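From the pipeline queue, job 12 of 40. The input is one protein chain; the requested action is below.

Action: predict structure.
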Amino acid sequence: MLKQVKFSQQDSESLSNYFRLADTIADLIGPHCEVVIHSFESFEESVVKIVNGHHTGRAMGAPITDLGLKMWRDYENSGVVSPKSYFTNSCDGSLLKSTTCILAGADNKAIGMLCINMNLSFPFPEIIKTLMPDVSVATTMVNENFSTNATDVIDQALSSVIEEVDNDDSVSSKGRNKAITKRLFDNGVFELKETTTQVSERLGITRQAVYKYLREFKSEFLVN
């Protein structure tokens, strides 16, 4: 016999922390993707977060689905969840590619579900268009360094910042090293352990000089 899940304050807070994940997924995939978070505190009004709900006609307070109940019971019985994508149809007949994952709180307690529904009934070129840069407007490309080790991440970030500073006419040659160090500091790169060593070697200055810059930056940060 299925029962509602008794929620603690911690359970509610844990589930609400997933809301930003739903927004992030929907933002990445685009308007043809519905993202839903269900709460197991109330099966009758389980939808506590939904983005692009028009694809299934649902809104906040909608009930859990029959498949959702089955997944919840399977998890309660086995403690195992293996998300797999599947195809289904919405109420209007639209073809959806979906996946569902149990969300766990403290002590691995099942508190809800994350569901992603991609509406494939739209023309494929229209779907693809939402995943590509819009050539009709100015699109800002962001530099991001993907690497398998921290040394490469630091090196690439350092190279990028050096290029930025060297192309900035407002930075004098005397202030170049400090400006480079400041941008790396502002970008959080010094959170990686070997940054100080790599910066000092690349810029040809001592680690003590780098530490001096960092103390200045941290002092300014605390004042502001």
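Job complete. Strands lie at 33-39, 47-51, 86-89, 95-104, 110-119.
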